[in-house]
């Protein structure tokens, strides 16, 4: 749990339809006018037992990750790195405060939602709302196609 494989051992690579459903989030790292100002995006929600994060990487992959608070406590080096590297999208201020173990300001956006139970349907609905907001930003907005 303390090494670099923690994330890779836990992350689930989502199918290409996820990247296709969230093109603005997937492309954000390549667009300085995106909602993340050109940074990779992670959408994160918490529960009493842990966290669920969906990472939209610069190479087009979408990785779905869950961990308990205890596991994250044991993987602090990785968790600190992720906090600095990614642009965070969270459903509320409480989530941001709970995730921010370094105490330093995280680059973030709050998109309100009720996803505290991390239920898959509610989480995907929240990601849809984030994608809709992301399409209003940056150069992708001018080329987005309604589906």
Q: Give the strand line-up of the largest sheet.
A: 1-4-3-2-5-6
CATH topology tier name: Nucleotidyltransferase, domain 5
Low-confidence stretches: 141-147
Q: Between the first and last Cα atoms, what is the distance in angstroms?
A: 41 Å
Amount of helix: 40-55%
Mean pLDDT: 84
Largest sheet geometry: 6 strands, mixed
| Backbone structural class | alpha/beta
Task: Report the strand count.
Answer: 6
Number of helices: 8
Order of helices and strands, N to C? HEHHEEEHHEHEHH
Provide an overview of this structure:
The protein is α/β, with parallel strands linked by helices and 147 residues long. Helix content is 41%, strand content 20%. The chain has one domain: Nucleotidyltransferase, domain 5. The chain has helices at 5-10, 16-21, 23-27, 69-74, 76-85, 93-99, 120-135, 140-143; strands at 12-13, 41-46, 50-56, 62-68, 87-90, 108-110. Strands 1-4-3-2-5-6 form a 6-stranded mixed beta sheet, with helices on both faces. Strand 5, helix 6 and strand 6 (108-110) form a beta-alpha-beta unit. It starts with a helix and ends with a helix. Residues 141-147 have low confidence and may be disordered.
């Amino acid at each position: 749990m303390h090494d670099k494989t923690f994330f890779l051992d836990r992350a689930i690579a989502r199918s290409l339809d996820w990247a296709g459903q969230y093109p603005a989030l997937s492309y954000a790292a390549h667009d300085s006018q995106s909602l993340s100002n050109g940074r990779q995006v992670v959408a994160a929600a918490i529960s009493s037992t842990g966290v669920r994060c969906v990472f939209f990487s610069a190479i087009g992959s979408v990785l779905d990750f869950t961990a308990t608070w205890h596991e994250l406590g044991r993987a602090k080096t990785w968790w600190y790195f992720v906090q600095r590297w990614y642009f965070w999208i969270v459903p509320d201020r409480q989530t941001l405060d709970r995730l921010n173990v370094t105490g330093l300001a995280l680059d973030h956006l709050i998109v309100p939602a009720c996803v505290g139970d991390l239920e898959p349907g509610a989480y995907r609905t929240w990601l849809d709302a984030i994608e809709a907001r992301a399409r209003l930003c940056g150069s992708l907005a001018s080329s987005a196609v309604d589906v």
